[in-house]
């Protein structure tokens, strides 16, 4: 009984393992935007997507310091009596947070993201700071690590 149970468990494991890996070969695309991957050169691929993204810049701290000073001054002018110090501190903290956010927005950049499916079915994503002039379905080759239309 024990050996039958062990054999059954082993058979179930083999079936599950072979089924899990059988789908791997089928999951690789054979065509991208109408271009058959087998028809492109060995070092080529097909652009599956390209889009622009706007990203916030990195803050240097200058915006936070400037915002904190300005916020502290405003808080000091608004506050009165025993709450003046608390309002000044709150103004400085709020100004620092706001100044930091403003600095990031001022330094924002646009990045173009291009996704390429290579002949072997693997997918790679490339980022540039300028428009690569590539569109979905373009056949590309890699030059200096960047996709370039053939």
Task: Give a brief description.
The protein is of the alpha+beta class.
Instruction: Give helix and strand order, one letter per element, not per position.
Output: HEEEHHEEEE
Helix content: 40-55%
Counting structural domains, the number is: 2
Distance between the termini: 65 Å
The largest beta-sheet arranges its strands as 5-4-3-6-7
Total of helices: 3
Spans with pLDDT under 50 lasting ≥5 residues?
A: 18-25
The fraction of residues assigned to DSSP E strands is: 25-35%
Question: What coarse outline follows from CA principal-axis ratios?
Answer: rod-shaped
Radius of gyration over alpha carbons?
29 Å
Secondary structure: number of strands: 7
Task: Tell me, rounded to a whole number, the average pLDDT.
Answer: 79
What's the story with the biggest beta sheet? 5 strands, antiparallel
Structural class: alpha+beta
What can you see in these coordinates?
A hairpin with a 2-residue loop joins strand 6 and strand 7. This protein folds into 2 domains: about 1-55 and about 110-150, no CATH class; about 60-105, no CATH class. The chain has helices at about 1-25, 60-80, 85-105, and strands at about 30, 35, 45-55, 110-120, 125-130, 140-145, 145-150. The longest helix is centred in the first third of the chain and has 26 residues, at about 1-25. Helix 2 (about 60-80) packs antiparallel against helix 3 (about 85-105). The protein is rod-shaped and about 80 Å long. The relative contact order is 0.19. Mean pLDDT is about 80; it is low at about 20-25. The protein is α+β, with helices and mostly antiparallel strands and about 150 residues long.
């Amino acid at each position: 009984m024990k050996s039958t149970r062990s054999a059954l468990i082993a058979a179930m494991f083999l079936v599950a393992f072979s089924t899990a890996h059988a789908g791997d070969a089928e999951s690789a695309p054979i065509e991208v935007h109408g271009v058959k991957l087998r028809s492109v050169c060995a070092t080529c691929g097909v652009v599956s997507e390209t889009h622009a993204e706007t990203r916030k810049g990195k803050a240097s701290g200058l915006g936070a310091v400037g915002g904190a000073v300005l916020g502290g001054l405003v808080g000091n002018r608004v506050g009165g009596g025993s709450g003046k110090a608390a309002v000044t501190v709150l103004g400085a903290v709020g100004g620092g947070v706001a100044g930091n956010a403003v600095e990031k927005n001022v330094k924002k950049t646009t990045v173009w993201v291009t996704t390429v499916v290579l002949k072997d079915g693997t997918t790679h994503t490339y980022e540039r700071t300028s428009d690569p002039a590539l569109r979905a379905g373009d056949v590309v080759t890699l030059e200096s690590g960047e996709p370039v239309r053939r």
